[in-house]
Design goal:
This protein is mostly beta strands. The chain is 2% helix and 35% strand.
Length: 225
């Protein structure tokens, strides 16, 4: 009862600039069926995610509709979920989903990352990770109305070395992952792709991660592969 998605290969290079303007992003499947399991009040703001891959990296793009974009934390491994934040949790080996990575990004692009390395210590960082954010609005100015913020992420496959059956993945490989959005000084959001079924807000529930299938097929551009 968890969601499934197929990740196709990018048709060309992906530039991490926070814009999602490469043709491959437009051609890939958009995930917009997010749930609000802990919603109590306020507006349920739309979130959209997309995923691509090539031999070097997994690419994730988020577009988060947000009337009041806010973020203040700037240091690596700050608790960015207190700000407007999007998150990707990944278990690359389905034989043990308790071994997983989490990558979290606020609207300034500040990153928190954890992994099986060093007992999930903050001493470990995915140094080759890349992220960029663009904001259609004015961050931390709460007396106006913003539109959205966009996050573009490249997670190099080498960060999963030792914890994935194949790197890069092979056609048909299955990983488990979840996509989240949280935070915000106004209209706090807790949004999940695969509901965690936790009574209180909790994203660290790997048994509830969704299922993704890597496909060797390249996204179709202009009617051709």
């Amino acid at each position: 009862d968890v969601p499934h998605a197929t990740i196709e290969r990018a048709a060309g290079p992906i530039t991490i600039d926070g814009r999602l303007d490469e043709p491959s992003w437009a051609a890939t499947t958009h995930i917009d069926s997010f749930s609000f399991p802990w919603w109590t009040e306020g507006e349920r703001e739309r979130t959209e995610a997309r995923m691509l891959w090539d031999d070097k990296a997994l690419y994730v793009g988020f577009r988060a509709i947000d009337s009041h974009v806010s973020a203040t934390l700037t240091e690596r491994d700050d608790p960015v979920s207190r700000d407007d934040c999007v998150e990707v949790f990944i278990a690359p080996d389905t034989s043990d989903v308790s071994i997983y990575y989490n990558f979290e990004f606020n609207a300034l692009g500040t990153t928190l990352d954890r992994s099986p390395h060093q007992e999930r210590s903050s001493k470990w960082n995915a140094d080759s990770l890349r992220v960029a954010v663009t904001i259609d609005g004015t961050i931390n100015q709460q007396d106006d109305i913003d539109s959205l913020w966009t996050t573009e992420i490249a997670i190099p496959f080498d960060v999963f070395a030792g914890f994935a059956p194949h790197l890069p993945p092979m056609d048909g490989d299955v990983w488990r992952l979840n996509l989240y959005r949280t935070g915000g000084a106004i209209n706090l959001q807790y949004i999940t792709w695969s509901p965690t079924q936790a009574e209180k807000p909790s994203f660290h529930v790997p048994k509830r991660f969704g299922v993704v299938h890597f496909s060797r097929n390249t996204v179709t551009l202009d009617g051709t592969d």
